[in-house]
């Protein structure tokens, strides 16, 4: 029954995208169906075929073991008892380490070749342009403002549909550095990696429903990465990557302190208001979101008993960010508070930067590449965030169909 509901959810999410499309008559359904098909093929390979699951489980174990190497650096800097302060001294250092490693891969051109191969597959199947496909493929590994750097020369001349697809790809995926942090939380690595891969074609599929192509793209059928390497050698690459990771860590730490403090203050106000007006002092943002978004969780195939808690996670991810939502998921996992099925589906649904704050990040980040497109980015921001959210929900629904 839950698998059938997840199929229904997939159709509902596609239907929502179609309902709010800017030009329904121009939707290229071949691209959309291929995007969904690629998602489904990836999902079947990972979740249904033993060798596929074994490969991704192996990759997950390798990544987990690889991230444990950051413990050596953390132990030297913070001492043998560094894990007593798990988040600050265990989780955040993994971001710095992984960022340095990604920078090293970029310096040697390895990352570019992997991205180019994935982009080629999406161009040949979905029929999307080179620039939007490259950006979507890049989003599997790097963040929402870093991936567009792979297509920096093409952003100023990108069509509105391409610009929407570029933004949607950023909202539908997460950066490799924060993915490493979520693995440190105890969130299943195999499903985090799978979600990152599956959401790339999902982003293009949903984007082409909500903002179909009506112009001629200058990069149709072309795959070319034309970005200068910022590093001069391997040592420089590691240094720059570590510094980028440090900036990300400081941003995350500051954001968590501010958002969690404001959330506690807001919940205290809601509790007071609920007690005065409704004799419900337990009223909180989480409680409100659990009621509002439980049906969305149900449509992904989450067991109804867990829908309230997963709905609260979805709401926090959208209003605050996915980092806070994954922190809450970690607590649910440790307390065995929800079923394994709910944990896996939530892992897929939360794996994206689609939140209100990211709209400003993308407008500022991509706008820095092409200042003349700033107004277009602002015009597309909310719509692209909704598209990224729907892409994550599609990925979760497909996982729900196969679990």
Automatic annotation (TrEMBL):
Coiled coil: none annotated. It is found in: Cell membrane. InterPro entries: C_nuclsd_transpt (IPR008276), C_nuclsd_transpt_met_bac (IPR018270), CNT_C_dom (IPR011657), CNT_N_dom (IPR002668), Gate_dom (IPR011642). It is a multi-pass membrane protein. One of its GO terms (molecular function) is nucleoside:sodium symporter activity. It comes from Thermocoleostomius sinensis A174. Residues 8-80 form the Concentrative nucleoside transporter N-terminal domain. This is Nucleoside permease. Keywords: Cell membrane, Membrane, Transmembrane, Transmembrane helix, Transport. Its main location: membrane. It holds the Pfam family Gate. Belongs to the concentrative nucleoside transporter (CNT) (TC 2.A.41) family. The chain crosses the membrane at residues 29-47, 85-106, 163-185, 248-273, 285-305, 342-370, 382-402. GO terms for cellular component: plasma membrane. Residues 88-186 form the Nucleoside transporter/FeoB GTPase Gate domain. The keyword Transport applies. Residues 191-400 form the Concentrative nucleoside transporter C-terminal domain.
């Amino acid at each position: 029954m839950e698998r059938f509901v997840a199929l229904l959810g997939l159709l509902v999410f596609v239907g929502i995208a179609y309902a709010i499309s800017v030009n329904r008559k121009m939707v290229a359904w071949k691209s959309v169906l291929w995007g969904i098909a690629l998602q489904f093929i990836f999902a079947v390979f990972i979740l249904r075929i033993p060798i596929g699951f074994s490969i991704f489980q192996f990759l997950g174990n390798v990544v987990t073991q690889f991230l444990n190497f950051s413990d050596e650096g953390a132990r030297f800097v913070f001492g043998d008892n560094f894990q007593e302060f798990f988040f600050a001294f265990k989780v955040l250092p993994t971001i710095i380490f992984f960022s340095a490693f990604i920078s090293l891969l970029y310096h040697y051109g390895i990352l570019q070749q992997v991205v180019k191969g994935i982009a080629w597959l999406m161009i040949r199947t979905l029929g999307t342009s080179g620039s939007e496909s490259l950006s979507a493929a890049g989003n599997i590994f790097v963040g929402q403002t870093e991936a567009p750097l792979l297509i920096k020369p093409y952003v100023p001349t990108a069509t509105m549909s391409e610009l929407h697809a570029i933004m949607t790809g950023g909202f539908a995926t997460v950066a490799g550095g924060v993915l490493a942090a979520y693995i440190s939380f105890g969130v299943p690595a195999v499903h985090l990696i799978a979600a990152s891969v599956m959401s790339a074609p999902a982003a293009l599929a949903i984007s082409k429903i909500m903002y179909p192509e009506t112009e001629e793209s200058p990069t149709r059928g072309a795959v070319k990465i034309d970005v200068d390497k910022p590093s001069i050698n391997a040592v420089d690459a590691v240094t720059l990557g570590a510094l980028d990771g440090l900036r990300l860590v400081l941003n995350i730490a500051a954001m968590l302190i501010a958002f969690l403090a404001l959330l506690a203050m807001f919940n205290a106000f809601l509790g007071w208001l609920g007690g005065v007006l409704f004799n419900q002092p337990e009223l909180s943002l989480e409680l409100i979101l659990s009621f509002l978004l439980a049906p969305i969780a149900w449509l992904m195939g989450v067991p109804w008993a867990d829908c309230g808690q997963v709905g609260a996670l979805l709401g926090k991810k959208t209003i605050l960010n996915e980092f806070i939502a994954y922190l809450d998921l970690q607590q649910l996992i440790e307390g065995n508070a929800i079923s394994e099925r709910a944990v896996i589906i939530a892992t897929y649904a939360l794996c994206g930067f689609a939140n209100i704050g990211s709209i400003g990040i993308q407008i500022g980040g991509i706008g820095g590449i092409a200042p003349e497109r700033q107004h277009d980015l602002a015009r597309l921001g909310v719509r692209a965030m909704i598209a990224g959210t729907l892409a994550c929900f599609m990925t979760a629904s497909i996982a729900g169909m196969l679990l």
